[in-house]
Amino acid sequence: MVAAILLTLIVSACGAETPETLASDGSDQGDFKQWKLPKRLREISGLALTPDERLLAVADEKAIVYELDYQEGKIIKSFALGDPAVRADFEGIAVLGDTVWLMTSDGLLFAATEGSDGRSVPYQKYDTEHGEYCELEGLAQDRATATLLLVCKQVKSKQDDLMIFEWSASIDGIEYNRDVAVPEALITGIVDKKRISPVRNCGRSTKRRTSPGGGAPGHIGQIDSRRRPVRGYTSEKKGPAQAGRGN
């Protein structure tokens, strides 16, 4: 149920501005609910579940984290990393323990403790240096191993593998573990697509990546604990390590 709701939130990231309650399009079919997000969230670039299954989101250009009530269609709160909020090309969010992680397309990681509504919180910044050869677009957490998984959207060289970078992470620092190259042919085979464009992680277990766009069906590949492709399926279309301290 949760995975279906998160997929819907991604493909529905548009709609009229509303201060607290998200607009409903009337879709409520059993386990499926759809909410239209306000304009300030029209370019959500990451979704993540906290350990207690609250949904956090980050938009593309500012380090502002939103908590969304995916049952009632409400924005519960928002808080910023930095004052003013850090501006960058954010492409992912993850949660390990009580630490919220944001990732930029050029491989920067920002870590902060979750803040209350309207607050600005201090943060730590780390450079993975992956941005030198990879455009990143997808961040996930593996809580069992306290690791972050960074997904490469496009390698800056001719390569057909899906690259996943694994980092051990805590608020005090990050440590590189390994990179995993998953052959594109293995993934396209299980999702029945000629090409893939891995972007978002939406599951609670960090091993699902999906590439929905503009309301079109999303093709999802599931990867096991060894980062091997397991299976794929398609969501139905439902309608219209150097640290720096921040302030």
How many discrete domains? 1
Low-confidence stretches: 1-19, 198-220, 231-245
What characteristic shape results from the CA principal axes? globular
N- to C-terminal separation? 39 Å
Determine the CATH topology. Answer: Hemopexin
Strand order of the largest sheet: 3-4-5-6-10
> Which value, in Å, is the CA radius of gyration?
17 Å
Strand content is over 45%
**Helix and strand succession?**
HEEEEEEEEEEEEEEEHEEEEE
Name given to the CATH architecture: 4 Propeller
So what's the oligomer here? single chain
Characterize the largest beta sheet: strand count, sense, and whether it forms a barrel: 5 strands, mixed
Average of per-residue pLDDT values: 73
Please provide the count of β strands: 20
- Report the helical percentage: under 10%
Contiguous helical run count: 2
CATH class: Mainly Beta
Class computed from helices, strands and strand pairing: mainly beta
Topology:
Elements: H1 2-11, E1 23-29, E2 32-36, E3 44-49, E4 55-59, E5 64-69, E6 74-81, E7 90-96, E8 99-104, E9 108-113, E10 120-121, E11 124-127, E12 134-142, E13 147-155, E14 161-170, E15 173-183, H2 184-191, E16 200-201, E17 208-210, E18 219-223, E19 229-234, E20 242-245
Parallel strand pairs: 6-10
Antiparallel strand pairs: 1-2, 3-4, 4-5, 5-6, 7-8, 8-9, 9-11, 11-20, 12-13, 13-14, 14-15, 16-17, 17-18, 18-19
Fold and architecture overview:
The chain has 247 residues and is mainly β. The protein has one domain (2-236): Hemopexin (4 Propeller), CATH 2.110.10. Helix content is 7%, strand content 49%. It is built from two helices and 20 strands. The chain has helices spanning 2-11, 184-191; strands spanning 23-29, 32-36, 44-49, 55-59, 64-69, 74-81, 90-96, 99-104, 108-113, 120-121, 124-127, 134-142, 147-155, 161-170, 173-183, 200-201, 208-210, 219-223, 229-234, 242-245. It has a five-stranded mixed beta sheet with strand order 3-4-5-6-10, with no helix packed on it.
